[in-house]
């Protein structure tokens, strides 16, 4: 796409000249990727690529939106950088109506990152290894912060295998169902000396725990904030009280700290914690609790109380001269999925989400839905004919990591050789036993979207009396 934009003369030369670096190297790098070569590699028709390139480049405004289909690969970061290249070529960034939009899978994924739930960042995406930043947090918190980056989730499981990580405090996560190559993940969790799980339901991970701390449901039973995909921080308000022994997570963590010897926390409220946050995170500095309440939410960065918030990012790239550093083009090599297709494993499996279900099904499997689908393995019409299987038939699905039984569905829109299923129903189809645990070394994300599998008929099996409509999982 980038090469076609360049060869068609559709680049924004003024923007490239003033706001970017590395353009000449990038032009040389993409030169081999003709429309014909790209069609041969990807299977996407050359004319479709050309149409996309011209439509995107000539649009008055254009956005590129993506989800986990881009990032859950061993090249996830490279994939995102490739999309950024297109925006830099055309100037579709840093102005109203144009931009790069990573759509989050849950309502507060953005907020989790903002708050510092990343191994290399403190609140407000500030680097853990920056001495000046760390000193500011240490002064506010009255403690010493380790100067080295922590482990991401993949690195944690690697550390468990080396017996370097012996205890886990797991809050609102179900890795015993959600991890790729989940049999290995479960084995690592079993190795721990101590596993503490804090959650709203008794997940499979909680069932493995030494201690379970029942928590309030964030979106219905707690006060606080959530931050959505457009960086808008909004107030969350408790509608009901948590049931039974479930407690507010702030209170649980506060009491745990006291039991471990630090009783200085003082039982802070959500508002008090937010006001403290503003003192250490410049991008939240102008978002007082009162403003969030009165204005219905604000978009960061919002550094001062008279700042209106930022409806879009990177407007600085249109300043002359550019405010801050220039935006770099990235030369990223094509790298196919690491779980290779072979005669033994000839089909490509990718995981998807169904409309009415959520992650591993913990929160959605407890109610009925008239549109619930997704437990089937959806395959193409041609592959169904080649395998001699029909919708509703039980089959064995194998990868290099294991095998499970699944029910066949047929999706008329699927390309030959491609299969998909959800991960919402691990009790019916434990799909993550067969997903690929190849990892992006830059992000630590597993390659959920590209496993190599084999489908085999079962001896003497009958069709199930269930509704697996053609295209139901699409």
Automatic annotation (TrEMBL):
Cited CDD domains: MopB_CT_Fdh-Nap-like
Keywords on record: Iron, Iron-sulfur, Metal-binding
GO MF annotations, alphabetized: iron-sulfur cluster binding; metal ion binding; molybdopterin cofactor binding; NADH dehydrogenase activity
Record-linked InterPro entries: Asp_de-COase-like_dom_sf, MoPterin_dinucl-bd_dom, Mopterin_OxRdtase, Prok_molybdopt-oxidoreductase
Record-level GO BP terms: respiratory electron transport chain
SUPFAM superfamilies: ADC-like, Formate dehydrogenase/DMSO reductase, domains 1-3
Pfam families: Molybdopterin, Molydop_binding
Start and end residues of each Molybdopterin dinucleotide-binding domain: 347-451
Listed PANTHER family: NADH-QUINONE OXIDOREDUCTASE SUBUNIT G (PTHR43105:SF10), RESPIRATORY NITRATE REDUCTASE (PTHR43105)
Protein name as annotated: Molybdopterin oxidoreductase domain-containing protein
